[in-house]
């Protein structure tokens, strides 16, 4: 794991970025969108309740996984999200309708925004001639989402998506797919992301370097140190 920002760039040939929570976030929030879907079926739910349920359901789903279960594909991701939607909104009379609406919503570019530091940071990396890849536990919808966000479309990144690779982070095969896609040895790749396990520890076990993007400055309850923004990290490239 890399904690010294000044040393992080030595020998790096390409940058690998996570997507959700690192480059993009849903606007309006997941809780607001789920609560609206419930309201369309006559069910009024407090947004904070929805937010807590979603966080728990998403966490439970990840925790249930083991290396074996990290195998995935497009149908598996659809089933997973159907399970999460029904667990977050169990009161709905038409759960299938809510799932279809939410699946469609989060597959649209206008449901997502880039964090403010993304455009300038990617422009700087491009100017330095560093290849950029985005590696995500999303599904095929991510291609449409990213193509519709100008800050990301402009840098024309390589996309490595778990449902297309066949394995989710932190399975070793996912990081191997990154290396193959970029034609690079793992030690020349720097992975940056907001998930300590998927974007840092898993990447480091596979031989990549990893930096944790702790946008909310909350720490991880352990010894891992993060950087607060992409700008802070990329600025060191120029010194
Ligand atoms: Mg993320």
From TrEMBL:
InterPro entries: HAD-like_hydrolase_domain, HAD-like_sf, HAD-SF_hydro_IA, HAD-SF_hydro_IA_REG-2-like_cap, HAD_sf. Pfam families: Hydrolase (PF00702). PANTHER family: HALOACID DEHALOGENASE-LIKE HYDROLASE DOMAIN-CONTAINING PROTEIN 3 (PTHR46191:SF2), PTHR46191. This is Haloacid dehalogenase superfamily enzyme, subfamily IA.
